[in-house]
Amino acid sequence: xxxxxxxxxxxxxxxxxxxxxxxxxxxxxxxxxxxxxxxxxxxxxxxxxxxxxxxxxxxxxxxxxxxxxxxxxxxxxxxxxxxxxxxxxxxxxxxxxxxxxxxxxxxxxxxxxxxxxxxxxxxxxxxxxxxxxxxxxxxxxxxxxxxxxxxxxxxxxxxxxx
Length: 162
Hints:
Oligomer: single chain
CATH class: Mainly Beta
Strand content: 25-35%
Number of strands: 6
Order of helices and strands: HHEEEEEEH
Helix content: 40-55%
Shape: elongated
């Protein structure tokens, strides 16, 4: 079984990037002096620089962690990272446990935050891989298939050790 991105997944990423680019261009435009040169003493110039660095960080995080397809087979779980091309195969015997958690995104002292659900696949080498539920339109089916095969392999492994 393969995961399928939800219809508006790419639009949400593009909207974030386009919005940040518009703000960056505006800030750099406002930071120009009468001669058309950038005034590095202007606050808008430095705000634009900070936003460029933030945009690079957002793109790096999306490219490295988030944009991946998931394929569930009877022997392993395959994660294919679309931008980097990395393929990660995890056998069910390498999985310590699977947990679904609710995460909050926001500031510590703020009352405004967004919550989202993530399934964490914890591995025996003390690392984990996240599956963000909102990224895929068939998340429920993928997770059901994953947990089914995981339980089968756990039962098979425990019966062999007895």
